[in-house]
Each structure stands twice: as C-alpha cells, then as structure tokens.
Amino acid sequence: MDAITVSGMTVVYDKQPALENVSFSIPEGSLTGVIGPNGAGKSTLIKAALQLIPVRSGTVEVFDQPYKNQKQLIGYVPQRSEVDWDFPTNALDIVLMGRYRQIGWFKRANNKDIKWARACLEKVGMEGFAKRQISQLSGGQQQRVFLARALAQDASIYFMDEPFAGVDAATEKAIIQLMKNWKRQGKTVLVVHHDLSTVEDYFDHVLLLNKRPVDCGPTQSVFTIDNLEKTYGGSIAFLQKTTPAGGR
Amino acid sequence: MDFFSVLGFDANTEWVLTGSLLLGFASGTIGSFVLLRKQSLISDAMAHATLPGVCIMYILFQVKSIPLFLIGAALTGLLATQAIQLIIHRSRIKTDAAIGIVISVFFGFGIVLLTYIQQHFGGSKAGLDTFIFGQAASLVKSDVQVITIGSLILTMIAALFFKEFKTVVFDPAFAKGIGLPVRLLDSLLFSMVLLVVVIGIQMVGVVLIAALLITPPLAARFWTEQLGVMAFLGGSFGAVSGISGAILSTTIDHLPTGPMMVLSASFIFFLSFLFGSKKGMLPRMVKLL
After folding, report:
1. Backbone φ and ψ of A226, nearest 5°
2. For residue B30, which of B183, B206, B175, B209 has the smallest C-alpha distance?
3. Distance from the A44 Cα atom to the nearest Cα atom in chain B, whole angstroms
4. Chain B contacts of A106, Cβ < 8 Å?
5. What are the residue ranges spanned by the domains of chain A?
6. Contact assignment for A76 to B160 by CB distance below 8 Å
7. Bridge-partner residues for A35, per DSSP?
C-alpha cells in the first residue's frame, strides 16, 4: 500500500514555478530520500504536501484518503533554522508540543505526558538536557530536540526537512538510528536530503526532483548516474566518485 | 479597595486605579505573545490606525459607545494591516517603510477627524480629546467598568489558550501540522490587541498604547527564560506601570496618563536591562568575570 500519493502538485512563487506538476507515490514502510539541486523545490514539496503553503493545484492522499482527514498520522520535523531558538522555553517544553494534539484544548500536560516526553528525549540521547534553555543547545542538540518532538507525536509517517544539515556526528548517528527504528516499526519516512554520498547508505527509496520529478523508486534502480545527470544538469562528473556503487 | 483608601484616594480614583492595573496586566500578558511573534511594530501601526475608525463611529452615531468604537477601530486597524501587507507584497518598499507610511497616513487622518469632531460636536464632552495621550481623570465609572471587564476577559483568554499561542508563536508550521487553526489563533491574538487598544484608548491614548504592549514584556524577558513566567511578569510590570502612571497623572495636574504609564514602563525596562537576572547587563558581566 502507498503511504503517500501526490498528484499534479504545482506551486508558484512570485510567478516563478517552484514545482511543476509533481506526481509520485511512496510505499508504506519505506525510507525515502528527496534528492535534487538547490532550488529544486525539495522543501517546498514537503510544505506543499502538508498544506503549509498555498498550492496552485494538486492533491495529496495519505493511505488512499485525502490528507486533511489523515493529518494526525503525520509528524513533521521542520528545518532547524525556521524557528527562533531565542524563544523563552526549555527542551522538555518543545518535546511536549509533540503531545499537544493528544492533550487537547485548554488542558495542560500531565505527569504521563511529561514522562512520555522525557522518554523521547532519552531516545535521542538528550535526557540530561530536559530543563536546558533551547538557546543554550548546540545546533545538533536543537535538531535532536526536534526529533524528540516528532517522536512524541507517535506518527505513522514522518516528513523531515534537511535533518542532517550542519549537525555533529553524534546527532547524525542519532537521526540514522531513529530512522531505522521507525522503519522497523513499519513507519514511513520522507527526508529532504543534500548529501549524495550518503544516499545509498540511508535510504531504500529515492525521489529525484528538479521542479519536476525525474524518477522515483527503489534506490538501486533510481539512484543512477544517468538520472543524477538529468536531475542536476550536465555538470555531474564530480558525482561519480561520490556514488560508490556507480549505480548503473 | 482598602489598599487605595489608605493612600487617601476617593472612590472614583480607586476605580480608575483598579482599571489601570488590570489594563496594564492584560496588555503586558498579551504583549508577550505579540513580542515573540515579532509583531510589535505592526501592533503599533494598528493602534495608531484605530483613531480614524473610532472618530468615524463618533461622527456617524454621535455617542460614545465601546462596542461601536470597537467596530470602527477593528475596521481601520484591519485596513491598516492589510495596507501594510499589500505594500510589502506589491512594491519594492520594505516592511519598516511600509509601516511608517501607514502609521502616518492613518494617524494623520485620525487627527483631522478628531479636530472636526471637536469643532462640530464638542468632542471634549465625550472625552474624545483625550484619545491621543489618554487621561485617566476623564474616566467615569462606566468607562472603568468596561476596562475592568475587558481586561479580565483578555487575561483569561490568554491563560486559556496559553499552550496553543505558545506553539503558534514558536513554530507556526508545526502548529499547523498538529492540526491547530493557526490563522484563527493569529486572528484571535490580533483581536485581543485591538480590544486592548480600544478599551485603553481613553486612559492611555492611541499613540502610546502599543508601548504598553511592548515594553513590559520586553523588560520581563530580561528576568526569565520561561514563557509562562514572562507573560506573568510582563503582566505585572504592565500593572505596575499602569497604576503608577494613573496615580502620577491624577495627583499632579495636567499630566497626561499615557506618557506617564510609558515612562514608568520604560523605567522598569531600564532597571531590567541593567539588573535582569537572565539577560541583564550586570549579571552577564559578572558571569564573564
């Protein structure tokens, strides 16, 4: 079964198309990397799919149902740079936000929610930082707080926007561990990713995107030099050494 | 009211002081969210832009009625924020210049209308002449009742939606993802600012009411790293500024209330800037030693 089906997605920024008629589907339980050059619309695709930005046209289905009926199944990890980390709060509070849907309106987090949030922090190796001000966390630690918040949501599908951007080795390891755990639990993960050299290690599915989808499918068959050339344009020679399997 | 009577104030002044305290608390609390949502300047523009709306309502109906003023204020306040958005999106003018233009146009128009009212309807009788800088002494019991009830409602809404506002202010995209009605909550916050402006207009005045939304929470930020504490402390600083401004302007002749409140708030801000335990200059210098 497909976890996500996007059909005919078109997004226009300032009269410039950011995404043109993008259609693809992601099988349930897959770990999919969204790959493409800068300005290819990778982050835009995630935001459009989650209806965070206006779209010109296109539909999104989650497990064959319209997205708006299935929102509760989806967890979103935005780019770290999109929020103000000087906000007056601590790590535990941010993770608790992942429980707000379950807690509901007008109610406050109870002990069970706090315990849950602490467990999520522990899973990303941040148990010692629960009461730490978020402004005093390193970039990698901030990313892990976002991951813990996503974990706290207990979603079936996760969208992650450049989680590996500018993080330390420990955080990178924590993210990979988390993605593998999610996969083991049958969850579906879609990750906007930049580093071509790690694509084959991290993802079993790939969506190649440059405003239009170039190809989408299992990594072995889709992540090929030919396809990368189509995605990135002609100047791709340097990539050959970064794609160890050659992908032919 | 025993506290105030000890200080030797009459019953009406006690009412006014209670109103100024609650208004200060409400604006300091709401201001905390506005400040962190980075909409302080927009709220200042909106406050200025309510003046023509209020005047138009008075010209049309010739009664001083808070609900009518609220409608007028909402209309021109909304128009001003829309105008700012339009200018930013449709021209090369940047946000600061767009806000600057809109503030002057709306406020200038408001002043013209206010002058017209004073010449044709005897606006001073209605207390409209105090709308620029505010005059606590001009308030009668019913005015203060509106301020009191309005402030209490506003503070309650802020407390009730604390968790939701916090999420929307910190990370609107995530908030939308977990199903919060982000636009609705934004509009609610915007409406709360409008309500503060309208109920505070006669006491504080349109020119400086925004300062009461901005300065107390800004001062509070120097003392805490927790939003809940910041909102409460911002409210408390607002309450102290409100009441000391009201006392100063009612005990000393010809002192307008709004500027006195803002001076009090600025004094608190200055102390916080120097001594604030979390971000103050001196504690930080001590840490570096």
Report:
1. -55, -50
2. B209
3. 13
4. 160-161
5. 2-83+155-242
6. no
7. A208
Residue A248 clears pLDDT 50, i.e. is over it: no
Nearest to A43 by CA among A188, A162, A150: A162
- Please tell me if residue A53 touches chain B, with a CB cutoff of 8 Å: no
Strand partners, A191: A33, A160
Tell me, yes or no, whether B167 lies in a domain. yes
CATH number of A2-83+155-242: 3.40.50.300
Residue type, A246: G
CATH code for position B23: 1.10.3470.10
pLDDT in tens, A169-201: 989 999 999 999 999 999 999 999 988 888 999
- To 10 degrees, what angle do helices B40-61 and B66-90 make? 130
C-beta atoms of A88 and B230 within 8 A:
yes
8 Å CB contact between A116 and A149: no
Q: Report DSSP letters for B154-215, one per residue.
A: HHHHHHHTHHHHHHHHH-HHHHHHTT--HHHHHHHHHHHHHHHHHHHHHHH-TTTHHHHHHH
Asked if residues A22 and A38 have their Cβ atoms less than 8 Å apart, the reply is no
DSSP 8-state assignment for residue B128:
G
DSSP class of A105: T
Which amino acid, one-letter code, is at B129?
A: D
Which pLDDT score, from 0 to 100, does residue B124 have?
59
Contact across the interface for A87 and B177, Cβ inside 8 Å? no
Q: Rounded to 10 degrees, what is the CA torsion of B262, B268, B274, B280?
A: -100
Tell me the pLDDT tens digit for each residue of B104-161.
Answer: 999 999 999 998 988 887 655 566 778 888 888 888 888 899 999 999 999 999 999 9
Residue A44 phi, psi (nearest 5): -60, -40
Mean pLDDT computed over A36-42: 89
**Signed CA dihedral, B198, B200, B202, B208: sign only:** negative
Q: Which of A47, A74, A89 sits opposite B227 (nearest CB)?
A: A89
CB contact under 8 A, B178 and A100: yes
Residue-wise pLDDT tens digits, A147-173: 999 999 999 999 999 999 888 998 999
Of the candidates A90, A117, A92, A88, the one whose C-alpha atom is nearest the C-alpha of residue A102 is: A117
* Residue tagged 């909102």 (tokens): B231
Is the residue at B219 inside a domain? no
The pLDDT value recorded for residue B19 is 92
Tell me which chain A residue has its CA closest to the CA of residue B166. A97
- Long-range contacts of range B102-106, CB-CB < 8 Å, 24 or more positions apart? B102/B45, B102/B49, B103/B44, B103/B45, B103/B48, B103/B49, B106/B45, B106/B48, B106/B49, B106/B51, B106/B52, B106/B76, B106/B79, B106/B80
In chain B, the number of structural domains is: 1
Q: Cβ separation of A87 and B180 shorter than 8 Å?
A: no
Name the residue range of residue B94's domain: 9-209
SS3 labels along B80-106: HHHHHHHHHHHCCCCHHHHHHHHHHHH
d(CA B163, nearest CA chain A) in Å: 8
| A194 burial via Cβ count (<10 Å: 0-12, 13-18, 19+) | middle
Q: Verify whether the Cβ–Cβ distance A108 to B163 is below 8 Å.
A: yes
Amino acid at B86: L
